[in-house]
Amino acid sequence: MLDEILAKIQRKSQISRLKKHPNVSFKGIKLGISNHFVLHDNLKNVTLGNSMSFRNYVHILVQQNAVLEIGDHFFMNNFCSINCLDSISIGDNTLFGENVKLYDHNHAYQTHPEFKLFSSEFTTAPIKIGSNCWLGSNVTVLKGVTIGDNCIIGAGCTIYKDIPSNTTVINHQDLIFKEQ
Hints:
Blueprint: H1 2-20, E1 24-26, E2 29-31, E3 36-39, E4 45-48, E5 52-54, E6 59-62, E7 67-70, E8 75-76, E9 81-84, E10 87-90, E11 95-96, E12 101-103, E13 105-110, E14 116-124, E15 127-129, E16 134-135, E17 140-141, E18 146-147, E19 152-153, E20 158-159, E21 168-169
Parallel strand pairs: 1-4, 2-5, 3-6, 4-7, 5-8, 6-9, 7-10, 8-11, 9-12, 10-15, 11-16, 12-17, 15-18, 16-19, 17-20, 19-21
Antiparallel strand pairs: 13-14
């Protein structure tokens, strides 16, 4: 009983966070439990379409000067995250399986004169996902990728280059069995 009350309070808090931000617009939205929206005060724009559903433990980060646009009838399953430092757009009637991750950025690094990683500097490029797409469980989409309309991305795929419309992508792994 207490868990249900706390979940309801948390959902109201997240809806309130969305409503209060001047650059966020949304229509119908359904939230599960323990969802978390991190919205920078100076983000450019967040537009969430009608009839959206976020399951449980979803994390959405939109940083300064970033744009996030999600179309109508979008579904995001448990443990998904969107990490937007530049621009991410998702079309209508698109659904994500569990644990889908979107990253429109990478950490900056140099290789010469010596190898060095920069923990607070990033390179960015937009992500565009079309309408009528299904990204299966554990799919990761990296910066600069465009996925066309009517695509199915199979479970476990890492998408690092463009996918044309009307394409199915599978994670082909050879299982090797050795007899002892």
